[in-house]
Amino acid sequence: MAGFIILEDGRAFAGGNRGIDLALEYLAAELPDGPFRSWLLDQRAKIRGMGLTSVDLRELAPDNREVFYRAVRAAAVGVRDRDPEFAEFFDHLPEMIRRWEAGEPPEEYNPHMRALIPPTGDRRGPGWE
Fold it and tell me: DSSP 3-state helix, strand, coil percentages of the chain (rounded to 5)?
């Protein structure tokens, strides 16, 4: 079963449940205690169930998106130091974000998926009040 972290342009960082759970744990370690950190950890497969991990950045409140992007950049450094083998997988996420921010078409670098994931229009997580 797979889990996903979907960027704002529809490309997805995807992997097995354990890989995505570990990515979320590394990201949460970079966040202050609070509602967004708790919500992010609650999205792990070991909490939600196999194949149910999905964090779609388009569904997050704008402030939480910015916090998420900063956490990815900070986590990337720590992952390389603590877990070089996992870093080979995790490094795709900051690279995908970098290319999205540069305005590159998502089809040019979407290493985990064949197609883009369409938006749902949903609002999830804290910060929408």
Answer: 55, 10, 35
Distance CA 1, CA 97 (A): 24
What is d(CA 44, CA 107) in angstroms, rounded to the nearest whole number?
27
Q: Is 56 left (phi over 0), alpha (psi -120 to 50) or beta?
A: beta
pLDDT in tens, the chain (129 residues): 688 999 999 999 999 888 999 999 999 999 999 999 999 999 987 766 565 678 999 999 999 999 999 999 999 999 999 999 999 999 999 999 999 999 999 999 999 999 999 999 999 999 998
pTM greater than 0.85 (yes/no): yes
Q: Please tell me the distance from the alpha carbon of residue 94 to that of residue 72, in angstroms, as a whole number.
A: 6
